[in-house]
Design a protein that fits this description.
The chain folds into 2 domains: 142 residues, Periplasmic binding protein-like II (D-Maltodextrin-Binding Protein, domain 2, 3-Layer(aba) Sandwich), CATH 3.40.190.10; 87 residues, Periplasmic binding protein-like II (D-Maltodextrin-Binding Protein, domain 2, 3-Layer(aba) Sandwich), CATH 3.40.190.10. Helices cover 39% and strands 23% of the residues. It is built from 9 helices and 13 strands. Strands 1, 4, 5, 6, 7 and 13 form a 6-stranded mixed β-sheet that branches. Strand 2 and strand 3 form a beta hairpin. Helix 3 crosses helix 8. The longest helix has 22 residues. The chain starts with a helix and ends in a 12-residue tail after the last helix. The N terminus is likely disordered.
């Protein structure tokens, strides 16, 4: 019996040593995070992005641009690695991560816990849920009943208002085909209250200080997405996000990319 126990202990110790040896690389990174090991080996982080997710990711002069592009470039600098931007559709993002084609996906990616079996997520860095924006003071959800509310027909704001109406709140929506049309209506005084995405509201308020952001109707957190085995990369990204939040980088990027277009009011006939 003692012989069997000694053999079992020897096997267990040998296995533990084997694991410890195999987990350590010349970069001091455990093989349990092969993604970080590959990044250090290449000296480069491959970031997937969808060029059609304005203002987070787009293409300008043939190069990747946008809020998420500048943010991930800053994170790569913190990690002391170069960054390569790889055009990747949102539909293919999780497969590309799982197959090792990219190390991180950044394109206003909503937090998707149902994908947790094959992906890791950063901390939330932007909330783009629907909010109330109004002239002359922030409004509560209850105050949406006070006067007509501008909203883009068929958009998330429309869905939020319909949900409130199904709950019994009396709301009078004023529909617009595009966010630009709704923004012009706010500027020109056609409506004084609207429901838009938080990032859109930030741009509107920056352009017109008389507008204020009121209550939120929904919460839509955006995250950076990594492969499931990117344990140390996730930690590095989260620390980088905290640092960039603290040093004002995110505030600067918001002012740069979350901007409302200049609009003119129609001249009365």
């Amino acid at each position: 019996m003692r012989i069997r126990q000694r053999i079992a202990i020897i096997i267990l110790v040998s296995y533990t040593v084997l694991i410890l040896v195999s987990e350590v690389t010349s970069y001091g990174t455990a093989v349990v995070d092969p993604v970080m090991a590959r990044i250090h080996s290449r000296g480069q982080m491959r970031v997937g992005y969808d060029p059609g997710v304005l203002p987070f990711t787009t293409t300008q002069n043939g190069q990747a641009a946008g809020y998420d592009i500048d943010l991930t470039r800053a994170l790569a600098q913190t990690m002391q690695v170069a960054v390569l931007y790889v055009p990747t559709s949102l539909d293919a993002a999780y497969d590309a991560l799982q197959q090792g084609q990219i190390d991180l996906m950044a394109s206003a990616m909503p937090y998707a816990p149902e994908q947790g079996w094959r992906a890791r997520f950063s901390t939330f860095y932007v909330d783009d849920g629907m909010v109330i924006v109004s002239r002359g003071g922030g409004r509560t959800v209850a105050q949406l009943s006070d006067q007509p509310v501008g909203v883009v027909f068929g958009g998330d704001g429309d869905s939020a208002l319909r949900q409130r109406r199904r709950a019994g709140q009396i709301i009078t929506p004023v529909y617009y085909d595009r966010t630009l049309d709704l923004w012009q209506a706010l500027v020109c005084g056609t409506v004084h209250v609207a429901v838009v995405e938080h990032t859109t509201a930030l741009g509107m308020v920056a352009r017109d200080p008389q507008l204020q952001i009121g209550a939120a109707l929904s919460f839509v957190p955006y995250v950076l997405v990594m492969p499931y085995d990117a344990v140390y990369l996730q930690d590095a990204v989260n620390m980088g996000l905290a640092q960039r939040q603290q040093d004002g980088t995110m505030t600067r990027l918001a002012a740069q990319w979350f901007r409302a277009a200049a609009v003119a009011c129609p001249t009365p006939p």
